[in-house]
């Protein structure tokens, strides 16, 4: 349990550091060779944690400490999901291993969705400030005349 929580905390801290740095770095600043190498190593380590360590630690926790094996069946509350071959009415068997694998898949989907959000935030950083400055510069009356003196 500690390994799962620790890997999630490390990934959240690293992701938060990216968002903090994205707000601090000016758009269009040239990147030196050293900054590019440091950034690529940082992202590689973060992706390694997100897609390798966190799902692995979850599957290890589910298999070992929680005992979610392939021979243990999920019956659910009030035995709603008890399979027909064991005297229930549910038409298929649901094992705890299938549930743990589904949770691992959800972990991957959440991380790839988060990665897309991070890419979009990094690419669009600074655009809000530019759009506001442009809107103030181009304010016009209802008749189309500029409100601010442009010089």
Folded structure, characterized:
The structure is a single chain. It is elongated, with a radius of gyration of 25 Å. Helix 1 runs antiparallel to helix 2 and helix 2 packs antiparallel against helix 3. Helices cover 63% and strands 0% of the residues. The chain has helices at residues 2-24, 33-65, 96-123, 127-137. It is mostly helical and 151 residues long. The longest helix is centred in the first third of the chain and has 33 residues, at 33-65. 5% of the residues are buried.
SSE order, as H and E? HHHH
Number of strands: 0
Report the portion of residues in β strands: under 5%
Structural class based on helices, strands and sheet pairing = mainly alpha
Helical percent range?
Answer: 55-70%
Low-confidence stretches: none
Alpha plus pi helix count: 4
């Amino acid at each position: 349990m500690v390994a799962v929580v620790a890997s999630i905390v490390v990934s959240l801290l690293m992701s938060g550091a990216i968002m903090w740095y994205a707000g601090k770095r000016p758009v269009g600043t040239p990147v030196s060779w050293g900054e590019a190498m440091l950034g690529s190593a940082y992202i590689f380590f973060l992706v390694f944690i997100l897609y390798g360590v966190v799902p692995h630690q979850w599957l290890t926790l589910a298999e070992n400490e929680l005992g979610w094996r392939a021979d243990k069946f999920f019956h659910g509350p009030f035995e709603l999901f008890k399979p027909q071959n064991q005297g229930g009415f549910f038409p298929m068997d649901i094992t705890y291993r299938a549930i743990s694998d589904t949770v691992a898949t959800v972990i991957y989907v959440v991380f790839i969705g988060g990665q897309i959000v991070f890419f979009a935030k990094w690419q669009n950083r600074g655009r809000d400030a530019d759009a506001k400055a442009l809107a103030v510069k181009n304010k016009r009356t209802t008749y189309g005349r500029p409100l601010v003196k442009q010089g």
